[in-house]
Specification:
With 834 residues, the chain is of the alpha/beta class. The N and C termini lie far apart (88 Å).
């Protein structure tokens, strides 16, 4: 029997889902499929578009099976779009001039970015944020502008903040202009929007709400963006991300009905005004309404596949829930988030000090969950969203209180939808687990849960755990091993390059998760310079330039001062360097001097003078030992009982350059008065009349922890031995970016287990750990001295590759006040106190 022909116009996420659904269900091979993809790339994950930044590898976003290799009934034409439709003759003419006959036509043309018709919107430096090609164009402009250059995003909705995040990842200073009074106005309310604005501002974003874009004009070094309040922003580029419009022009030209507000008009079966033409995804106006999220788009794709195979599926409505993480900030909304239902009540918990906002919308008797908003902490999303429309398991305030007990995924009924993107219920996931799906990847493959936004993965993991499944500790998709396992592999096999490691023990090309981790492991197990050959390509910006990048694209310089000691001659050199290079100087909390405002091409000249004066890199840029803070101890203080300065100097000189999963800080106090704040450090040493007390697992930050006593009354040699073991055990076993405090808590047995390993050598690895530390101490070399003696490494330190002698013109400072501060293009200077 001859198969019938279906032509699919568009190969985005929804078009691909339709092809997958049709081919997986069409057991009789009733339909042959021709797919027209006008982009140069087959279907990719547009939801995760900002993850393209950094890797710049389209394959990383490619959807699984998007090439249909081995399926002779699918003809995928990449780079070939549809030019016109003759619905009477049932023929599509393509952009190559080819004509294709069809029995059914599926329009999956998606949407296009809306560009407000402001003067200058089509000039140089103006972009949209929609495709990989768009990001490639933005990247080229950002690289030309240089680090710290200003980029403006018009639109503060979901896509606008994604675009701003992408600019930040490219090293730009991002501004967001939103004409509404708050960010993400469709997803969060006034309270959530206010907190969101505060959190992203603290992370470096500049937010302009309640204003529009009045005009864009060209300038010598970029563009000038004029806002409706009369203010201006000097920028290098602008990205329009102010919403999308359905791509319905092909349908209009073919005489297919469209909605009043655009979109290809369909009934609940996704059938257009022509019975042989269907519309799916963002271009479809189902009974007059377009849906801009991928979940309802997938639903329309499934409906059309069912209809072509003789079914009668109808559109059931759409779940407009959203969950995302922007610049590290969690945002989620679900159900009737704005409380528009009759009689709806709002239960709100806002904690400004912790940066969290939670709201539940409930029925008038407070029993039924109608919706909610979570900002700052969206960990409850996976358990709360499936409860929409159901009776709450407890008091609403308790469910969003930090101290309250949260409903687990295991308590949900089987028909509760865990994955809203793909309409996967708890029962379907549990069924897949019972059938042998024993990890996240298997559950994804069986059910499609977690394959889109990933917001349901915590619930999936919990269901796996409840079923007795041991969870995978894979570092990322490229390495099935944990960080600790990779450390053991590198150490035992003496593998010294990332390419060799991934070729033998991983897959793919790596990512921004595994590359820095492997770089750190390589540095922890050998004394090779971190910019040595292939290792250089693994480093992040700070390690790549051996300096901390600042908000305007300049760098800070921090020479090491063990124990806070510095000679008069060295102070003079530091002062002369600061004067000659125009640097701002600041004494840090770690008892060092920080020099701010150095351009990248100035770094070698600055460090040449510092190294010649006998100073070394303080490694303020690395995941490594930062400082060993000390009081003056018994040498000067009348209360001191031990030489804390001498011990601090010895410890810093011993552990300098030690790469680790996260930064490490020490403190050494000469008595119990604790002037060096040792118990707030990863390693704290406090003097007593009977020797040294050793404390471990402390830190400051958002979740401060007091260090805990590991051992007391130690002599100098035993103290050093225990610290050697402790640090190497941490480096060997901790997870990626895990500080010592949560690492100690994560150990089975906690501090007691750590005492047994370090002090009693319960695992029999004490000598091995000490030997590894001895190897590090013996092989230590100052990183900046290694750069100054190597022309190849020195060649990296330029602002512009094509003009190595040229300084970055966007680096500007305000020196009108007492303090020298960076001026970001288009931003007012920061006022300073006199």
């Amino acid at each position: 029997m001859m198969s019938k022909s279906v032509v699919v116009i568009g190969h985005g996420m929804v078009g691909h889902r339709f092809v997958e659904a049709l081919r997986s269900r069409d057991e009789a091979n009733t339909w042959s499929v021709t797919v027209l993809c006008d982009e140069q790339y087959a279907a990719y994950d547009r939801v995760g578009l900002s993850s393209y930044v950094g890797a710049w590898d389209p394959k990383e976003l490619a959807l699984a099976g998007n090439d249909y290799v081995g399926d002779g009934l699918v003809d995928l034409r990449v780079g070939e779009g549809a030019l016109s439709i003759d619905k009477d003759a049932r023929i599509v003419t393509t952009t190559t001039g080819d004509t294709i006959s069809y029995d059914a036509l599926v329009m999956a043309t998606g949407s296009y970015p809306f560009v407000p018709p402001v003067p200058g919107h089509d000039g140089d430096g103006c972009f949209v944020y929609r495709t990989l090609d768009d990001l490639d164009g933005i990247r080229a402009a950002a690289e030309k502008a240089g680090p710290g250059a200003v980029g403006v995003v018009v639109g503060g909705g979901l896509l606008g903040l994604e675009a701003a995040n992408a600019l930040s990842l490219m090293g730009m200073t991002a501004h967001v202009v939103e004409h509404n009074a708050r960010l993400m106005p469709m997803q969060v309310d006034e309270g959530g929007g206010a907190l969101l604005a505060r959190l992203v501002t603290e992370l470096g974003l500049t937010v302009h709400t309640g204003v529009g874009t009045a005009g864009i004009s060209q300038a010598d070094n970029g563009i000038v963006v004029e806002l409706s309040d009369g203010s201006t922003i000097d920028a290098s580029l602008l990205v329009f991300s102010a919403g999308v419009r359905p791509r319905d022009q092909l349908a209009r030209d073919a005489g297919i009905a469209v909605g009043e507000r655009g979109g290809i008009l369909t009934d609940l079966g996704c059938v257009t005004s022509d019975e042989n033409v269907y519309a799916v995804g963002e271009c479809a106006a189902v009974e007059g309404r377009c849906y801009g999220l991928v979940a309802p788009g997938y639903t329309t794709a499934e409906i059309v596949a069912d209809r072509l195979l003789g079914g009668a599926a109808d559109f059931p409505g759409a779940d407009m829930s959203t969950k995302l993480k922007l610049m590290g900030v969690d945002v989620a909304s679900f159900g009737d988030a704005m409380a528009t239902s009759s009689g709806a009540l709002e239960v709100v918990l806002s904690d400004a000090s912790k940066g969290t906002y939670a709201k539940l919308v409930v029925s008038d008797d407070a029993k039924i969950l109608l919706g909610g908003i979570l900002v700052g902490d969206a960990s409850a999303y996976a358990s709360l969203r499936p409860l929409v429309g159901r009776e709450l398991p407890g008091d609403p305030a308790t469910l969003i209180s930090p101290a309250g007990e949260k409903p687990g995924a295991g308590s949900l009924p089987d028909d509760a939808e865990v994955c809203s993107c793909n309409a996967v219920t708890k029962g379907a996931i549990c069924g897949a687990i019972a059938a042998g799906a024993c990890d996240i990847a298997s559950v994804k493959a069986c059910t499609s849960a977690g394959t889109t936004c990933g917001g349901c993965l915590p619930a999936v993991k919990q269901l796996l755990a409840d079923s007795g499944v041991v969870m995978s500790k894979a570092l990322c998709e490229h390495f099935a091993q944990s960080r600790a396992e990779l450390f053991q592999i590198v150490q035992s096999t003496q593998t010294r390059t990332f390419s060799a490691l991934i070729a033998k023990y991983g897959k793919g090309a790596g990512c921004d998760i595994c590359k820095p981790v492997v770089a750190s492991i390589l540095a922890s197990t050998d004394s090779d310079h971190i910019l040595h050959r292939q290792q250089a390509s693994l480093q992040d910006t700070n390690d790549h330039f051996l300096a901390n990048i600042q908000k305007n694209g300049t760098y800070s310089v921090v020479p090491r001062m063990p124990g806070g000691e510095v000679t008069g001659e060295q102070l003079i050199v530091i002062g002369e360097v600061a004067r000659d290079f125009g640097l701002y100087t600041k004494v840090t909390g770690g008892q060092r001097i920080d020099l701010f405002g150095a351009r990248v091409e100035q770094l070698p000249a600055i460090w040449k003078r510092l190294v010649d004066a006998g100073m070394e890199s303080g490694q303020a840029y690395g995941k490594s030992l930062r400082t060993v803070k000390s009081c003056v101890g018994s040498s000067w203080c009348r209360y001191g009982v031990q030489d804390s300065v001498g011990m601090a100097v010895d410890l810093e000189n011993r552990y300098r350059g030690l790469r680790s999963p996260h930064k490490i800080k020490f403190g050494v106090s000469g008595c119990a008065r604790e002037c060096a704040e040792a118990r707030g450090k990863d390693v704290g040493v406090i003097a007593t009349e009977n020797g040294w007390n050793l404390y471990v697992g402390g830190n400051g930050g958002q979740s401060p922890k007091h260090a805990q006593l590991l051992a007391g009354g130690l002599d100098d040699a035993t103290l050093v031995k225990y610290i050697d073991r402790y640090l190497m055990f941490y480096i060997r076993t901790a997870d990626r970016l895990q500080r010592t405090a949560p690492w100690v808590e994560s150990l089975e047995g906690g501090l007691d287990h750590l005492k047994a390993v370090i002090c009693e050598d319960s695992l029999g690895i004490g000598e091995e750990l000490e030997a590894l530390m001895a190897k590090h101490v013996e092989g230590y070399q100052d990183e900046w001295a290694g750069v100054l003696g190597d022309p190849e490494k020195l060649s990296r330190f330029v602002s512009f590759v094509n003009a190595p002698e040229e300084a970055d013109p966007t680096v500007v400072f305000d020196e009108t006040g007492v303090r020298k501060v960076p001026v970001l293009m288009g931003m007012p200077s920061i006022p300073t106190r006199r």
